[in-house]
Write a structure and sequence with these properties.
It is built from two helices and four strands. By secondary structure, it is an alpha+beta fold. It is globular, with a radius of gyration of 14 Å.
Length: about 110
């Protein structure tokens, strides 16, 4: 079986509503991950592109967070309405969406924006 062309990890970490770092999946329903899975299926991109639930990606203040490998593209504040565009522009087209991109300097920063 060939390698994945893209593997999308969607943070589904849950924390209490009053937690200072926030929560990428506050209701615990994995809606964002499911939306990616449906869009990939709709476009018949499996099995070479896959979307999986991830535990905490430790970019909580910038979440909901999605990372796409092997391209190493980190997106923050991803909403359901962004999914189709991410699949079309990034996964299929190879273009980085600057409005969602978490800059390298912000990744794992002690003080997130």
């Amino acid at each position: 079986m060939p390698k994945f062309t893209s593997h999308i990890f969607v943070c589904c970490n849950q924390r209490d509503a009053d937690h200072k770092r926030g929560s990428c999946d506050p209701d615990g329903k994995q809606r964002l991950r499911d939306c990616f899975k449906k869009e990939l299926k709709r476009r018949k991109l499996g099995p070479l592109v896959r979307a999986n639930q991830a535990g905490c990606l430790d970019q909580c203040e910038l979440g909901p967070t999605v990372v796409i490998y092997p391209q190493e593209i980190w997106y923050g504040n991803v909403q359901l309405e962004d999914v189709e565009r991410i699949v079309e522009e990034t996964v299929i087209g190879g273009r980085v969406l600057e409005d969602l991109l978490i800059p390298d300097a912000a990744l794992n920063a002690k003080k997130c924006k």
